[in-house]
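chain below, 202 aa
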Amino acid sequence: MIEYVLLVEVFVTLFVIMDPVGTVPIFLSLTAGRSPATARRAAWQAVAVSFLVITLFAFFGQQILNYLHISLPALQCAGGLLLLLVALELLTGKSEEMTASADANIALVPLGTPLLAGPGAIVATMLFVQDIDTWEDGIAVALGVVGVHLALWAAMRYSLPILRLIRDGGVLLVTRIAGLLLSAIAVQLVADAVRAFVAGEG
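prediction:
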């Protein structure tokens, strides 16, 4: 029997952290000016990268951090700073440089990581994995992670009709809103990391 309570807990927790709905405006702004086929490819590539990173840290995250002498707050702060750089480009109108770069670059950074597979999602997954006691727990955690990534793919995949509907003026507006939201997320990540450092957790 699958632990359905744990499955729901994992799905809801990661859904809130990774925020498929909130990813849509950022995805739209980063894929503006690209062909639908390119945007669709970026969507599944970003989800694949995110799933790979989450899975890697689920199995080997603590060992990797211990080997590199990196604390969780340091990882969180680094992810926040990287997101802040992307947010500033969106807010200042320099996102054209990002959208003109190679497809793999957008799928890897910032979509795949740290936007989707960010410090919050990585840490949450590591904590869930540490609490696994039975194979039923393991299946529940795995299904929760897979379910969230399916939701992420669906949100980005079906945001493309919105992109065609709002046209250039709407894309500019969405880009500015996405930059504002992303900068707030980045500042919150850095603030949480600083708070953890002050509390002696770093």
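Residues 80 and 189 are 5 Å apart (CA to CA). The mean pLDDT is 85.
thats it, cya
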